[in-house]
Amino acid sequence: RYVACENRLEISSASVLRLDAIGLDGRRIDLSTVPGAAAGTSVDLRMLKSGVYVIRLVAPEGEFRQTVVKK
User: Which residues fall within 8 angstroms of residue 12, CB to CB, at 6 or more apart?
Assistant: First the structure.
């Protein structure tokens, strides 16, 4: 499970199998390599350009998605 806002993603899942940001153009950005992209941590989303993204987290508990609008 996680909570995403414009500049930060808080992860509370026991383990993260995959973490992506998907732009409206369909482009996928792999966030699993970003520092802090492990379970129980916080991921800085400031590197994303302005736009609308679907943040997708895949964990053993299931797949979670949330829309984030970057200004």
Answer: 1, 2, 3, 39, 40
Chain segment 4-47, per-residue pLDDT in tens: 777 888 887 777 888 899 999 999 999 887 766 666 677 888 88
pLDDT at 68 over 70: yes
Q: What is the pTM of this model?
A: 0.79
2-4 sheet: strands from edge to edge: 2-4, 8-11, 42-44
Residues 31-37: contacts with CB within 8 Å, 24+ apart? 31/55, 37/11
Nearest CA to 53 among 24, 32, 30? 24
